[in-house]
Amino acid sequence: RKRMAESELNRSVNEFLARLQDDLKEAMNTMVCSRCKGKHRRFEMEREPHSARYCAPCSRLHPATEGDLWAESSLLGLKITYFALMDGKVYDITEWAGCQRVCISPDTHRVPYHISFGSRTPGPASRPRVSPDAPPADLQDFFNRMFQATPGQAPTAASVPPPSRLARRPRGRPSQSDARKC
C-alpha cells in the first residue's frame, strides 16, 4: 500500500514537472506585443548567428548580432519572413513583426532595425544600463525579473518588460535599395 502511494506521488510529480517544463518552454517562445497587448509565438530556427542573414546584393549569408531584426523573401518575393537574433539564437518572429507593422526591405546588406529589451519604466527592480548601446537583457535577467514578484503573488506579464521597442539601427542611412514602400 505504501509502495502504491509512493508510485502515485512519483507519477503525479513527474506529470506536474512535465507540464511546468512545457509551460516554461511556451512562455520562453512568446513575445509580448505592445500594440495588441497580446502574445505572439516565435519559432527557433536552425541557423547559426555567424551565418544567419541572407544578403541578396552579396549572394551570401552574413552574421547577425544580438537584437538584430531583418527580413528575408521567399516564393519569388511573395512571402516575407522576419527574423531576429535573441538570446544567441535566430527566431522567426513574423507574427510579432506583422502585428507591430514592421516594414523593412528583405534580403538587404544592412540590418535596419534592432529590438531593444530594456524596461520603459525605471524602478528599483530594473538593472541600470551603462549606455543605450549596452547589450539586451539575457535569459538570467528575464528570470530575475520574472521571479521578483512579491511572495505569494504570481508574476504577471507587467513584471517582465516585453521586447517591444523597435529602434532604428544607428549604422548610417539605408540606401535607396534598402527602402521599401509599405
TrEMBL record:
Classification via InterPro entries: Jiv (IPR032843), Viral_replicn-host_int_reg (IPR052317)
Pfam families reported in the protein's UniProt record: Jiv90 (PF14901)
Cleavage inducing molecular chaperone Jiv domain segment(s): 27-115
Region (Disordered) location: 117-182
Entry's transmembrane regions: none
The protein's name: Cleavage inducing molecular chaperone Jiv domain-containing protein
